[in-house]
Write a structure and sequence with these properties.
By secondary structure, the chain is mainly α. It has 16 helices and no strands.
């Protein structure tokens, strides 16, 4: 039986970007407007699904946490959220310091203006059932409420709703993303904006790559201090997990390797068996780093102001979303759309550019996530040994 060939999300997105840039220079406007129309309808669908994604992912995650509550669980979740916040604020500080040197002129903002962009033939309104913040607070209410009253029937319903949402992401949103990104780059190219944008994107990707290495060094330095061991050796032992994640682009698929290398760092088997699978789902510091950096870059590219208070609120809420994000390729960026739109005010084209920029670096973010899981396991192991 022949093995079915499956082209990953990253190659499909890269192909979509290349085709969009290539065809955008010669495709007639009426043809481009067909894809712009698709993008408009897809964006409406996305706006409709975003509150449901938040409700479907966050509420069951909180309910699960309550049902399995224990000190080790709460400490692990707290550390995952803490490292996510640290990565987010590190990305904010670095971006504010370095990006103005890369994105330096007001000319760029004017060149990236949307006046030359083509419009869709028609639109289909799909209004969301609720606002993003309403969905988020409802998720907290339902999740916490279930833990207090032990509502098994409601919990089962939320779990099934989560399965439906995950299916919608995997079978509808993710497969259509490359076509959506193709349409965006098609329109950007015909409007004459692409050369400026690509030159900036390449520099931004370089900065984010260097930053994710520094975050890993920081995580293992803290783990080394806590365990009184050489942090570089601890990080070196986790490199097989890092390189496996580069290939798989999946934290879940890398769990066996991550677990093996964590045990090699002399972490208790029970602790590793609990922390590594859990962190594969809830620890997304690398993903947070990319989302914050890319968001700031896009705001600066379009001449917007990056306000500290807004970014602090955004990073804190993004940390909550990341803990509940689905463990599928592109799951983190899809879950983050809610806060990008509700807090930073991103429109459909900005969201599409965020997705494209994020996915081109998805394997490095995943590698950062899973390697950092090993650092968290080391710290949890030290706490566990002290309490024995």
């Amino acid at each position: 039986m022949k093995k079915k060939f499956n082209l990953g999300l990253l190659p499909r997105v890269l192909i979509a970007i290349v085709l969009g840039i290539t065809l955008g220079n010669w495709m007639p406007h009426w043809g481009i407007r067909v894809f712009v129309t698709f993008n408009d309808i897809f964006s409406q669908l996305l706006s409709f699904l975003v509150p449901l994604i938040i409700l479907g992912l966050v509420a069951p995650a909180i309910a699960d946490m309550g049902k399995r509550a224990g000190k080790m669980l709460l400490i692990t979740v707290g550390m995952a959220y803490g490292t996510t916040l640290i990565s987010g604020f590190a990305a904010y500080g670095t971006s504010m310091g370095l990006f103005p040197m890369v994105i330096s002129s007001s000319d760029m903002a004017s060149e990236l203006a949307k006046d030359n962009a083509l419009t869709s033939y028609f639109t289909v309104g799909i209004p969301p059932l609720m606002s993003v913040m309403t969905a988020l607070f409802m998720a907290f209410l339902l999740g916490i409420g279930i833990t207090k009253i032990g509502g098994n029937s409601l919990k089962k319903m939320l779990d099934e709703f989560k399965d439906i949402i995950s299916l919608a992401i995997q079978k509808v949103i993710i497969p259509l993303l490359p076509l959506h990104i193709f349409g965006i780059f098609l329109n950007i190219t015909q409007s004459g904006q692409i050369a400026t944008m690509l030159s900036v994107f390449i520099k931004i990707i370089g900065i984010i790559f260097a930053l994710h290495v520094l975050v890993l060094l920081l995580q293992f330095t803290v783990a080394g201090i806590v365990t009184k061991r050489n942090p570089l050796k601890l990080l070196y032992n986790m490199l097989p997990a890092y390189f496996t994640a580069l290939g798989t682009q999946s934290s879940a698929a890398t769990i066996p390797v991550t677990l093996k290398q964590t045990l090699k760092n002399n972490v208790n088997e029970d602790v590793a068996g609990f922390v590594i699978p859990l962190c594969a789902t809830i620890h997304l510091s690398g993903s947070t780093l990319k989302i914050v950096s890319c968001a700031i870059a896009l705001i600066m590219m379009q001449g917007g102001a990056v306000e500290m208070g807004t970014m602090i609120y955004f990073i804190c809420m993004l940390g909550v979303i990341m803990v509940a994000a689905p463990g599928v390729p592109g799951g983190a960026i899809m879950a983050s759309i809610s806060v990008l739109q509700s807090i930073l005010g991103f429109d459909e084209s900005q969201v599409a550019l965020m997705i494209a920029l994020y996915i081109t670096m998805d394997n490095f973010g995943t590698a950062c996530n899973v390697t950092g899981d090993g650092a968290i396991a080391l710290i949890i192991d030290k706490i566990y040994k002290k309490r024995k």
